[in-house]
Amino acid sequence: MMRKVLTIAGSDSCGGAGIQADLKTFAALGVYGMSVVTAVTAQNTQGVKDYEDVSPELIKKQIEAVFEDITVDAVKIGMVSRREAIEVIRECLLKYKAENVVLDPVMYSTTGHELSRQGAKEALVEGLLPLAKVVTPNIFEAQAMADIKISTGEDMEKAARIIHGRGAGNVLVKGGHLQGDEALDVFFDGNDISYLSFRRIKTQNTHGTGCTLSSAIASYLAKGFAVHEAVASAKQYVSAAIERSFAIGKGAGPVNHMYMFNSEKS
Asked: Where are the alpha helices (DSSP H) in the chain?
C-alpha cells in the first residue's frame, strides 16, 4: 500500500528546501507526497530575498481539502511564521487526529535570514510542540525553544530534555552548526539519550538539509518504522544526499535528494 505524507511548509523558489525538498524526499523514499503551502519565499542559493505568508484561511482550506479526501499517514510541518497560521494548523491537526507529526521548527534560513514573525516562537512551542511525535531543531532553534546557550554536546542534551518537557514526544537536536570533524546530533525519547555521530562532509552544498531530514523521518514513520529506526534511517539518507550534493548557482547548492537514481556529485 502506498503511504501518504503531507508537508505543511513554505515554498523555495530555487527548489532546494521547503516543500520542494520535501516532495523530492517523499518521492525518493517511496511515499506519496502532498503539500500545504504556508509561505512563498523569493530565494536562491545565496539567501532569502523576501517572503510572503499565505493567509491562515487558505492554509486551513488546503489542510481540509487533503484530510477530507485522503488518508494521511504522516505530517511534516516546516516554515510557519505567523501565530494565526500556527493556531489554524493546530486546530486542523487535532480535528483530523493527525498521526506521526514531525515538526521542523524553521525559524532561520541556512544563511541566517529570520523566518518567523513576532509571537510565532511562543505559539509554536505552546501549540504545535505537544502534537509532535518528533521535533528536529538545529542549534539556533533549540536555543530559542529551550532558552539556553548551546556550545557543547552536554548543552544539546540539556536542551533536548527541556524541549521534551515542553511537550514534544521525541527530540532530535541537530549539531551540524557546531565545530568538529564529526556532525553530532542528540536524540531524546523521554527516557534515554542517544548520540548520532556522522563524519562531517566538507561541502557548502547543504541547502535544505533540515527540511530533507524532517521529511525523511516523516516518510519512515508513515512506512511503519519505530521512531528510533526512522530517525537513524533518515540520518543515513541525508548524509548520503549531502555526500552526493551538487553545485548550482553562486552559493550553497542543494543536497542530492535523488542520489540513488543518478550519479551526480559536487
From this structure: 18-28, 56-67, 83-95, 120-123, 139-146, 153-165, 209-222, 227-243
Q: Is 206 assigned a catalytic role?
A: yes
67: cell is 484530510
Active-site residue identified among 210, 212, 223, 235: 210
Q: Of the listed 38, 136, 209, 212, which one is catalytic?
A: 209
Across 235-239, average pLDDT? 94
Decide: 190 and 166 in contact? Cβ < 8 Å.
no
CB of 220 within 8 A of CB of 76?
A: no
Q: Tell me, yes or no, if 14 is annotated catalytic.
A: no
Domains of the chain: 4-259 (3.40.1190.20)
Joined together, the cell numbers standing for residue 105 give 521548527
Residue range 93-102, pLDDT digits in tens = 999 999 999 9
Query: Which pLDDT tens digit goes with each residue over 42-88?
Result: 999 998 899 899 999 999 999 999 999 999 999 999 999 899 999 99
- Does the annotation count 190 as an active-site position? no
With 80 as the cut, is the pLDDT of residue 116 above it? no
Mean pLDDT to the nearest integer, 98-120:
75
Residue 41 known to be catalytic = no
Catalytic residue among 18, 110, 127, 211: 211
Residue 139 main-chain phi, psi, to 5 deg: -55, -45
Distances (CA, A) of 199 to 160, 181, 196, 211, 253: 22, 6, 10, 20, 19
Residue 266: what pLDDT? 42
pTM: 0.94
Which of 208, 212, 223, 235 does the annotation list as catalytic?
A: 208
